[in-house]
TrEMBL record:
<dbReference type="InterPro" id="IPR051239">
    <property type="entry name" value="2'-dNMP_N-hydrolase"/>
</dbReference>
<dbReference type="GO" id="GO:0009159">
    <property type="term" value="P:deoxyribonucleoside monophosphate catabolic process"/>
</dbReference>
<dbReference type="GO" id="GO:0070694">
    <property type="term" value="F:5-hydroxymethyl-dUMP N-hydrolase activity"/>
</dbReference>
<dbReference type="Pfam" id="PF05014">
    <property type="entry name" value="Nuc_deoxyrib_tr"/>
</dbReference>
<dbReference type="GO" id="GO:0016740">
    <property type="term" value="F:transferase activity"/>
</dbReference>
<dbReference type="InterPro" id="IPR007710">
    <property type="entry name" value="Nucleoside_deoxyribTrfase"/>
</dbReference>
<keyword id="KW-0808">Transferase</keyword>
<protein>
    <submittedName>
        <fullName>Putative nucleoside 2-deoxyribosyltransferase</fullName>
    </submittedName>
</protein>
């Protein structure tokens, strides 16, 4: 039996225009790194003809989970999603799921701003306000020094995304590659992940 070199390709890319072409390019980069890239679409044959709704969504969730179960590792785009500070929440769940399986993970992004700076930019654009020095003191001191006008802590200082997201990638032995070009960032991340696969 051969070594499993399949890698789950995850991120908000599935929602972007030209998603199939994006994943085709990512698969080429995977092959160049000596691994097989598996996109969420790969397990969803026949689902595209079903009507939107909760039953169809659950079929997609089960198909994606089955793909993650058979992959040796995962690589995740952690770009901000829908012009917000945070990444796609479904991708964050997938990071947690694969981390719980003890699989090696890697990340990549085109947005190298620290997470609190992403929150600051989002608040300015969406709400016209800014972050302020933390005045609410009922949260752990080490998790952040600024909060928004609602008193919600802008945490994860020094990280590119929520600390649980990036932290799980690091705890698996991985890193997050940052480049202005999505495919350049992916190329770096997949090469690093390929070296860590069993």
């Amino acid at each position: 039996m051969g070594t499993n070199k399949t890698v789950y390709l995850a991120g908000d890319l599935v929602f972007r225009p030209g998603a199939i072409a994006i994943f085709d390019r990512l698969r080429v980069l995977c092959r160049a790194a000596g691994v097989e890239g598996v996109a969420p679409f790969d397990g969803q044959a026949g689902i595209e003809s079903l009507p939107p709704g909760p039953e169809t969504m659950l079929k997609i969730v089960m198909a994606d989970r089955a793909l993650m179960d058979r992959c040796a590792g995962g690589i995740f785009c952690i770009d901000p999603f829908r012009r917000a500070a945070d990444m796609d929440p479904g991708t964050a769940v997938e990071i947690g799921y694969m981390m719980a399986q003890g699989k090696p993970l890697a990340g990549y992004t085109t947005d190298g701003r620290p997470y609190p700076e992403k929150v600051r930019a989002y608040r300015r654009a969406a709400w016209g306000d800014d972050l302020r020095p933390r005045v609410t003191h009922d949260a752990p001191v080490g998790s952040g020094a600024v909060e928004d006008s609602d008193g919600i802590l802008a945490h994860s200082e020094g990280m590119l995304q929520n600390g649980m997201v990036e932290g799980f990638i690091h705890l698996s032995g991985g890193h997050v590659a940052v480049r202005d070009d999505l495919f350049d960032a992916f190329r770096i991340a997949i090469a690093e992940l390929a070296r860590r696969l069993p």
